[in-house]
Write a structure and sequence with these properties.
Layout: E1 2-8, E2 20-27, H1 30-43, E3 47-50, E4 56-58, E5 63-70, E6 75-78, E7 81-85, H2 90-99, E8 102-103, H3 118-121, E9 124-125, E10 128-129, E11 134-141, E12 146-151, H4 163-166, E13 171-179, E14 181-182, H5 193-199, H6 209-222, E15 245-246, H7 248-262, E16 271-272, E17 278-279, H8 282-288, E18 300-302, E19 310-312, H9 318-336, E20 345-347
Parallel strand pairs: 2-5, 3-5, 4-20
Antiparallel strand pairs: 1-2, 6-7, 7-13, 8-14, 9-10, 11-12, 11-13, 15-17, 16-17, 18-19
Length: 351
């Protein structure tokens, strides 16, 4: 294991923000990961797990404890069954499954970060979520000091949520196992309308998996959602807010606010979310509340390509970013009575 002290953390995040860690350990095997976690827990030292750093907002003061960077590697494909080490780069793994002619995660191409983070957040985009293909997650259970294997059902997946996110201090993901589909090189049925339009097909159709992947990459790049060191629109955590899920009463109140602000005949995006709930679009809310693409005059601004991404224009601090996020949250709440929730994990700070 590599060990550094007073180590900068900003370069390990896609925001490129945050102060140093008291100690930074880089683990390249599962045994090293477990040893580092046990050492920190036995000593009572605060522990921060870092994978690809694409979902982290670290405070300017940094992290007073041990930051553990998981840099494990492992891509094992047996027929349609895939096992990934937690440190594998997610978008590279997606590319390799498509090259193998398999379907199931091709529309999750271009999502930054590591494989181990995908079950925590139940990563999803363009009509796919990892919960639909994950069969097992191997993790270290800090509460028992043992390695455990959880089935997909035991992960308790829901929209951008899981058992791991519900208990963030308990599990450290080591390996993720997937069941993919051999559809003779075709994709899974296309579920997302925007993807179907870009492909020139109907929702439910299949296309070559490679074509689906390339189309998604182009769609994401057009929104600044594919990492590019030269493009400050990608110095972000992708979508900064989750799409709100409203109860029936909340949704009716929301529609009333929409009519008051925008007039009759304006229908906000709405998607069934089960149990009488409705999901609406955070991006729509942000835009209609007056926070358009490129909003801001300081070093942290809304992306010029997508209203859901808050970005570091090169000289921002974490406090600059949080000030912008708080302004957006307050503005949307005032306009529509809906409180946005941040998607990235905050370390040492909060909205």
């Amino acid at each position: 294991m590599q060990e550094l002290h007073d180590a900068p953390l900003a370069p390990l995040t896609t925001f490129r923000l945050g102060g140093p860690a008291t100690r930074l350990v880089t683990a390249t095997t599962d045994d090293e990961v477990i040893a580092a976690v046990r050492e920190a827990d036995d000593a009572g030292t605060p522990l921060l797990i870092i994978g690809g750093g694409s979902n982290l907002v670290i405070g300017d003061k940094g992290f007073d404890g041990t930051a553990l960077r998981i840099a494990t590697r492992g891509f094992a494909l047996d027929g349609t069954h895939l096992e990934l080490a937690a440190g594998e780069t997610w978008t590279d793994a997606v590319a390799r499954t498509v090259e193998a002619g398999l379907a199931g995660i091709e529309c999750l191409a271009g999502i930054p970060g590591s494989a181990g983070a995908t079950p925590i957040q139940n990563v999803g985009a363009y009509g796919q979520e990892v919960s639909s293909t994950i069969t097992e997650v191997v993790a270290y259970d800090r509460s028992t000091g043992e390695k455990v294997t959880l089935s997909g059902a035991e992960c308790v997946f829901s929209y951008r949520h899981s058992r791991f996110k519900q208990h963030p201090e308990r599990f450290v993901v080591l390996r993720v196992r997937f069941a993919l589909e051999d559809a003779d090189g075709l994709s899974a049925p296309v579920k997302y309308a925007e993807t179907a339009r870009a492909l020139g097909v109907e929702v439910g159709d299949r296309v070559p998996a490679a074509q689906a992947r390339e189309t998604v990459l182009k769609l994401r790049a057009g929104k600044g959602m594919v990492l590019d060191p030269q493009d400050h629109d990608t110095w972000s955590a992708g979508s900064f807010f989750t799409n709100p899920i409203l109860t029936a009463a909340e949704y009716e109140a929301f529609l009333g606010r929409v009519r008051e602000r925008l007039g009759d005949g304006i229908a906000p995006p709405a998607y069934p979310a089960g149990d009488g709930h409705t999901k609406t679009s955070a991006a729509w809310l942000i835009d209609k509340a007056g926070f358009t693409k490129g909003y801001g005059s300081g070093p942290a601004r809304i992306s010029t390509k997508h209203t859901l991404a808050l970005t570091n224009r090169g000289e921002a601090t974490t406090e600059d970013l949080l000030a912008l996020a708080r302004e957006v949250v307050a503005g949307v709440r005032k306009a529509f009575g809906v409180t946005l929730v941040n998607e990235p994990v905050t370390v040492g700070v909060s909205l």
